[in-house]
Amino acid sequence: MDDLTTRRLRVVEQRYGKKALELAYHAALPLTLTSSLLYCLRETFVPDCPWYAIADVLLSGLCETIGYDLYEMEDNTRYALIERLREDQRFGEQRLHDLSNFMSHYILNRFKQETNEYRREWIPLSYLIADGEGVNAIKEQLRNLLEALPEDDEERIKWKELEKNTRISSKRKALSRCY
Prior knowledge:
By secondary structure, this protein is mainly α. It has helices at 4-16, 18-27, 35-45, 53-59, 75-87, 92-112, 116-126, 133-148, 154-178; strands at 32-33, 63-67, 70-73.
């Protein structure tokens, strides 16, 4: 019998098509998603995917709403989608590298548009980017922005909790690669 994650992926493919599932592969890398980010991923990596697949992916059961136009995937779902992306001969490890580079450019672009409107996206989008000097600088800027918020700011409390959960999740992911 299939597990819940496998059934979810099969249902998405049957209901919305292979292109929507391919878009979901790409949407699995960032910790959180917005419709804007998903449109950018579609345009960059799966341009032959229909535009309405953005809504299909976000509302398919693969994602859970965590705020206004802010979504996340369950860890098992994310890992299964990333693994499928890695195993797909058309994409592989190179696509993961390309996605990582895309995310760093996406976040840098958000910094240039420095408004509070994007603040909610910066921190969770930054944690799955591959390490590197430029990426570490982005992460440091994000930590500084977070620390600048008042102690009782509702967003700060949410992001601190997300940051804590992300570190735990990242450690689990790193450990799973060792086995």
